[in-house]
Amino acid sequence: MASSDNPEAVDRDLFSGKGEKKEEEKGGFLEKVKDFIHDIGEKIEETVGFGKPTADVTAIHVPKINLEMADIVVDVLVTNPNPIPIPLIDINYLVESDGRKLVSGLIPDAGTIHAHGSETVKIPLRLIYDDIRATYAEIKSGSIIPYRIKVDLIVDVPVFGRITLPIEKTGEIPIPLKPDVDLDKIKFERFSFEETVAILHLKLENMNDFDLGLKDLDCEIWLSDVCIGGADLNESTEIAKNGISYVDVPITFRPKDFGSALWDMIRGKGTSYTLKGNIHVDTPFGAMKLPLIKEGGTTRLKKNKDGEEEDSNEG
C-alpha cells in the first residue's frame, strides 16, 4: 500500500517529534481555555444564582360540561429561581385514555415567568364527545373513563438553554347521557275555567354511571299541539346512578285558553303529550345542564281510589 493511501500514518511519520509536541501543546492550551471558561461559568452561576425552573400541576377545573363537550383547565405552577424573567416558549399537551389519544395541541408563546417568582399557567383543553365516540366505539355514553394529561413546558433559561419540564396528571371524566323522563301522572289540585292548578308527577331515570343531584328543573308541557304552559321547580333531589327518582312539579294554566285537546283529555279520550325542558344537576365532575325531552306519550283522565281525578301515563 502506498503511503499516500494512509494520510494519517504519513502525518504521524512526518511530524513525529516536533509535530507531536506542537499538537500536545495546542491540545493542552485548548483544555486550559475550556477549563477556564467552565470555571468562569460556574462562578457566574454561583454569583448570579441561575437555576432550573420547576413545574407542578396544582389543580384541574371543569368549568363547563354537557352532552356535547367538556372544558378542562389545568393549573400549572411554574417557579423561576433565576434573577431574570424567563420566557415560556411552548406548551405541548396530550390527553389520553388507556393509551387512546383524546386530544392534543400546542400553545405557543405562553408568556413569561417573573424573576424569583412563581406563576400559575392555565392550560385550557376541550374534549368533544362526538369526536371521541366516532373514534372509539367502545366508549359509551353514560360511562366514566380514566384520563392522563401529559404536558411539556419548554422554557429558555440563561446558562442552561432550552429546558423541557414534563408533568403528568391522571383522573376521570364522564361521557354524560341525558336522563329519560316520563309524565307518570297529573293530579289536579284545583280546576276551573279561569285557573287550574295541577301537579305533574315526573319519573326521571338516570342512565349514567354517576349520581345526579337535581337542583332545578324547567319544562314546557304540550297536550297534542297546544302548549299549556311552563313549569319551574327548585328542588333538591338525588337521582342515584342507574336509578329512578320521582319529582312533583306544579303548573298553573287557564283551560278556557285551549282548544279540544284539553277537553278530549277530560272526557277520557287519549291525547298525546310532550315535555321539553332542562334539569340543572350537580355531579362529581361539576355542574351540568341536561335536556329533558319526552315526545309521543299519551295521557287521559282517570279516577283514583279516593275518587279524585288524575291523569295517568300510557306511554
TrEMBL record:
<dbReference type="InterPro" id="IPR013990">
    <property type="entry name" value="WHy-dom"/>
</dbReference>
<dbReference type="InterPro" id="IPR045043">
    <property type="entry name" value="Lea14-like"/>
</dbReference>
<protein>
    <recommendedName>
        <fullName>Water stress and hypersensitive response domain-containing protein</fullName>
    </recommendedName>
</protein>
<dbReference type="GO" id="GO:0009269">
    <property type="term" value="P:response to desiccation"/>
</dbReference>
<comment type="similarity">
    <text>Belongs to the LEA type 2 family.</text>
</comment>
<dbReference type="GO" id="GO:0005829">
    <property type="term" value="C:cytosol"/>
</dbReference>
<feature type="domain" description="Water stress and hypersensitive response">
    <location>
        <begin position="55"/>
        <end position="172"/>
    </location>
</feature>
<dbReference type="Pfam" id="PF03168">
    <property type="entry name" value="LEA_2"/>
</dbReference>
<dbReference type="InterPro" id="IPR004864">
    <property type="entry name" value="LEA_2"/>
</dbReference>
<feature type="domain" description="Water stress and hypersensitive response">
    <location>
        <begin position="181"/>
        <end position="297"/>
    </location>
</feature>
<feature type="region of interest" description="Disordered">
    <location>
        <begin position="1"/>
        <end position="26"/>
    </location>
</feature>
<feature type="compositionally biased region" description="Basic and acidic residues">
    <location>
        <begin position="9"/>
        <end position="26"/>
    </location>
</feature>
